[in-house]
Protein: Reverse transcriptase domain-containing protein
Organism: Gloeophyllum trabeum
Amino acid sequence: LSGYHIPGVADKILITLFADDATIYLPTTDRLEDLQDILTIWCKASGAKFNTEKTEILPIGNEEHRTNVIVSRKLHQDDAPLPESIHVVKDGETIRSLGAWIGNKANPVVPWERTLDKVNRAFKRLQKGHPTLNSKRHMVQHMAGGMTQYLTKVQGMPDPIIDSLVKLIRNFIWEDAPQPPLALERLYLRMEEGGIN
């Protein structure tokens, strides 16, 4: 298998492994049958087993190539069609890879919907304890900051998500008050610059 050569990177990219996840990168010159032969030998030697039911294929490259893979269900013209149990990702769909949601022509907002729901549920649960303003500050850092940090790093945070997150935080801090007693810009300041003082 030849993998991908990336300009400026000494090693080619062929496989990434993390815990029980494996991502394998095959250019059009590589054949799936060759990969399957290698994996069969590796599984026999290591005693491991690949869960082919979880196999997903994300075609990359130009749109014509991606469409050809989706329609023919072949990665290489000499390969047999992929089994129906293997999901081939269409444009607009995403799959999860190491916590990131990847795909071609995917809506960047969609991966954030679950995270925003989790933050919102956490805030509603915490609000029942009638926390102080200082407690809410810590809760916001822990919940809104902690639940969004990794996805922001790997995915980026689209502007509509930033707006929604700010609204969730504002509603949590001021308990859905129609007219907050303090502007967010003032609330964001360090304590010695005005914030809580």
